[in-house]
Write a structure and sequence with these properties.
Strand order of the largest sheet: 2-1-3
Number of domains: 1
Structural class: alpha+beta
Number of strands: 3
Distance between the termini: 18 Å
Radius of gyration: 13 Å
Largest sheet: 3 strands, antiparallel
Strand content: 15-25%
Shape: elongated
Bound molecules: zinc ion
Order of helices and strands: EEHHE
Pfam families: DUF1059
InterPro entries: DUF1059 (IPR009409)
Protein name: Small metal-binding protein
Number of helices: 2
Length: about 70
């Protein structure tokens, strides 16, 4: 099986997929880790969360889409 060659998977996530009333979306992240890093900043600035609780982080991971 051949991977890559310009068609690397991208990771996407939208806040609303975990029940947030929020239109924020992460697109074109290159890894799950990158999505979580972006969301850490977003959660802090937009949702006033100092940290993402582990149960929410799990939910986020389950809702990250690979495209
Ligand atoms: Zn949000």
């Amino acid at each position: 099986m051949v991977f890559g060659f310009g068609k690397k998977k991208k990771y996407e996530f939208s806040c609303s997929s975990v029940g947030m009333n929020c239109g924020f979306e992460v697109k074109n992240a290159s890894s799950e880790q990158e999505v979580l890093e972006i969301l850490k900043v977003h959660a802090k600035t937009a949702h006033g969360m100092k940290e993402i609780p582990s149960d929410v982080a799990e939910k986020i991971k389950q809702n990250i889409k690979k495209v």
